[in-house]
Design a protein that fits this description.
Blueprint lengths: L12 H4 L6 H18 L11 H14 L1 H33 L1 H14 L8 H8 L3 H25 L3 H9 L4 H39 L4 H10 L3 H29 L5
Helix pairs in contact: 3-11, 4-5, 4-7, 4-9, 4-10, 6-7, 7-9, 8-9, 9-10, 9-11, 10-11
Amino acid sequence: MEKQKQVITNRVAFLEKKVPFYTSFLGIAGILILWEIVSRIGIVSPLFLPAPSNIIITGWEMLVSGEIYGNLTASLYRIVLGYVIGAAFGVLIGLILGFFKVADAIGTPIVYSVYPIPKIALLPLFILWLGIGELSKVTIIALGVFFPVVINTFSGVKSVDPMLVKAAVTFGSNRINVIRKVILPGALPMIFAGLKLAAGTSLLLLVSAEMIAAQEGIGSMVLHYGNLMITSKLMVGVLILSLLGLIFNRALRWLENKLIPWKE
């Protein structure tokens, strides 16, 4: 009797198919080329939408003149300091709320009642309390970063398998070791999700704060050239903000891969 060979087809092979690394660049390049064509043939006036080539030339001139350096340095100082402070307090308070039931009962309602308030609405109050200098801007960024991080850290701690905690305690671990070796590693994926979410919020608050109360910074520069209708220089500021967001995301992803290699 002749045996029939049956070919088994993997119907979910498309889920495992690797995408070439240059695919992301092709998408961006396609948009830029289309944008350049639209601007060159005059469908949209350069006053409202300057061509990418014009933006790059303008950006180079601003870089050589030192204008970008001064504004970028001021913005980086504010966002890095505000982000680090907000993230550090967010992780710490999130761990405390998730691990101690008394802290959870007292602190969680406070966090969830303050979280929905648009943080930029509090900037006039912070200026009144802390002055119009750097402290009020750093504080508003730190506050905006704090809430996504604390809520995600709290959720991450609550999602850790209780059996792992009980096993660690049974084998003699104290509370510090339980947090450090069981809860913190288990909560790291949720913590990084909060950190990535907070990165976008920090950029939004940076620009808003600099537009309201700053003489120097990328947000202040965008507002200044918007008022003068010099859109090519305005778009340079927008491009820098976009690059900052991309660098932020890539840095967090690199750190996540280093700290959570098992997630891959």
